[in-house]
Amino acid sequence: MDPDGEYWTSEEFTCGCSASTFRSAIKDFYSDFFGTTISVSRLDLDADGNETSDSSLAISYSYSVTMDKLLSSTTTTFMMTFNTASASTIDIEYPSMV
To answer: For position 87, what pLDDT does the model report?
Structure first.
């Protein structure tokens, strides 16, 4: 939520999109609220949950977002997601969890 009490909304993106596409969809949030740029990486996971380099075996994806600036305060304590496709599952790991 921004200082005016409004929720921030990302650009729309598709499950399984590239790390670059995901970064483009969310980068303004980090820039606007924290004054930082971000790096995003994506892991492709197979049916057993193992990382795979064979994209034809990938059935799920894990994105890691790293802020390029160290902050001295809490960055995120709450985040809501809205799926537009019933096949999507979104898990969030807050900074205190990693």
So the answer is: 62
- The residue written with tokens 């990302």 in the block is 10
- pTM for this structure? 0.71
> In a 3-state reduction of DSSP, which class is residue 42?
strand
Instruction: List, run by run, the mean pLDDT of 10-residue segments along the chain (98 residues).
Output: 69 85 90 87 92 92 85 62 62 64
Q: Could you tell me the sign of the dihedral formed by the alpha carbons of 13, 15, 27, 23, in that order?
A: negative
Give the Cα separation of 14 and 43 in Å (integer).
15
End-to-end CA distance of the chain: 23
Task: Using DSSP, state whether 32 is helix, strand or coil.
Answer: helix
| Angle (nearest 5°) at CA 13 between 7 and 17 | 140
